[in-house]
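Extended Data, panel c. Modelled sequence:
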Amino acid sequence: MRARDKDDRGVVQSVVLFLGVSVLSGALAAGLAIPFAGLAGFGTQRASETFEQLPQELKVDPPPVRSSVRATNGTPIANLFEQNRVRLESLNQIAPIMKQAIISIEDYRFYEHGALDAKGTLRALLRNQTEGSVQQGGSSITQQYVKLVLLQQADTEEEQKAATAETYERKIRELRYAVAVEKQYSKDEILLKYLNLANFGDGAYGVEAAARHYFKATAKTLTLPQAALLAGIVKSPSAYNPTTKSGKKRAKDRRDVVLRRMQELKVITPKQAADAIKTPVIDMNKVQQVPKGCASSAYPFYCEYVYAHLLNNPALGKNPEERAEYIKSAGLTIRTSIDPEIQRDAQAAINAKTKPGDQAMAAMTVVEPGTGLVKAMVQSRPYGNNKAKGETTWNYNVEASYGSGFGGFQPGSTMKAFVLAAAIQQGVPLNHMIDAKKQIHLGGQRFRTCDGNIPVTPGYSPKNSTISGPMNLVRATAQSVNTYFLLLSQQIGLCGPSTLATKLGVVNAKTEDDDLIGKPLDVYPSYTLGVGNVTPLMMANAYATFAARGKHCTPLLITSITDSSGKNIPTPGAKCEQVMQPEFADGVNRVLGSVMTSGGTGSKLNFGRPAAGKTGTTQESKAVWFVGYTPTYAAAVGVTDPDGTQESLTKLTFNGRRLGGSVSGGGTAGPIWEAAMRAIHEGLPEQGFHKVDPDVVKGDVIPIPRVTGMSPDEAISTLKAAGFNPQVAGDRRDSDQPEGTVAYTSPRRSEGAIAGGTVIIYLSNGKDPNRPPSPPPTTTSPPPTGKPTTKPTKPGNGNTCPPLRPNCNER
């Protein structure tokens, strides 16, 4: 017979002998209860066969360890776990007194015996019978470890019952596995694994988590009374829970049993035991509850969005269920993009301008241009399920495809930025003129899209809410002139703006058909005034592309994932692509910067740094926006009615008062943006936008023929023949040309215009501003005496400059 067979047979005989002793004694050995009736007929031969048929090795999965979600600076923002455990890698990380305490009470001959300590078990049996209660455990630490492993690996309720059933089959199986474990690992390794896996009650698994939870300490710094308490708890974690009123006394009694046993074994002196027994069992002021999950995070909405992205990462498992289990048990360190300081500043701005009980809601996302890093995500309604306190679990910053994502709301005139950008890309000059009448009638007309022409609904007659009249692209953007942008989008077509918006990530965030979420927005003639539902995250990230000179990055929340050993786990990074030529983006920045200057809809939001942005108000004021950026950060603020009925904001309360007629992107959403961005940029070096290329300012234009001095009809005919759309202005201008003839055009002849573009014809009033004034008539009246009562009129008074002619003598 081989030596190994002899060894195994010897182990089997020892086991069967011990079982026989247990049965003959008629006792229930602590930790090794064998029913007499169950063992009847279960002979030595059958026990041997059962033992030998069991696996030769125990498969041990790593114990579940909590994962940590961290901010960009490394500070923890959430703990994800089913069992709160911090795994230790060495016994040196555990105080010697803790090891002595657990060995003293559970298996004092641990380093002397093999997998089964028959002598120790019988001694424990006799002591327990003498004391009338269980004072010492009968199972070795190795056996207890095996039981914990089997219980940990039981996936179903049925498997869990089998792992704890008081049957001889389970006991024999545990013994066989214990033999395998003793062969596979050293005693120190087994003790470390046991202390990492054991349940120490009140949600603390493993000795390190227990030390932190109960004592605000570490396993390495545990004191004698602390170690004795933890060693006592493992026997019955719920019964000996020292944080409960009923368990506190039982925990102290059990701790004192451990201390006396340590004294009995001469591990500690009688004085040490007496002093420790006098120590209070626990200081509740030091008990630390570990926040579990995103709901306990300081940034719950952001955290849940991060978790949703983790569930989509194939590197973490085959499916979302497997990934969820892995995330909560693998001890991952998940680094995210959130910046606590920026998050704080953004939330402070929201809190200062809103109230949790408001009927309207504000949401804001901050993105870093050129990286896609989502630096902050805040909203006015706090996290929770108490509607009376204004709480919600909806994340109003993100798309509906994510479980708690609200799905956004209509963007209003913030969509004009994409029409502006597409126009610049197509060579439209910044001085492009359109006669933006107060109201235009588009019914029956057609707009070009990528798929052909689409008709305008009959009767569609949009109006302006700001200024009207002939104007250029810069002024129309600064004042958010609806009819200008509708006519511009008709001129350039809607294919360019819609394609660009899609490239920048502005897509459907919520639709009746869930399959369309993430797909391009529907294209209508009113595209430039806002269609579909988009989110603050989408808009902040899209405008960040302009700030990054045309470099677009997908939003990035998770920057790295490492496992418990420090090994990197693949995680999708930001996909960055140059979607606009830098010089075209510079042109967009120049025009959107006019929004922040005097006369612009965002002029009151200028906080002293180069900035650009766009206001937005939807039809019937159901939502208002401000999306703006500097070269450093981009942010979008949206305000809307989130409660399903989509009431006009004029009817709702915001910041504790009814809004009424004072609803606008610049006046309602804008102040939140300004307060946040001012705080976010404090102390940062100032950066400016790149100077615009003169070719972008000029655009891709063709020459305008000379029409100065022509009659209106002749000028119109000439301009049409050259491929332009001529329009005669209603007012006449000072000129050296004869009255009623063409004084000049806008754009000027030297500036040119795009093919098919509008050229405004200004007629002369016959008053030459450069003609010297006529001398006063000669009179025979005596010269007046005293001071004149009126001032002479200066030449050029009343002269009005044409658009984009800053060097003329305008008042």
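The two ends are 115 Å apart (CA to CA). This feature is highlighted in the accompanying rendering.
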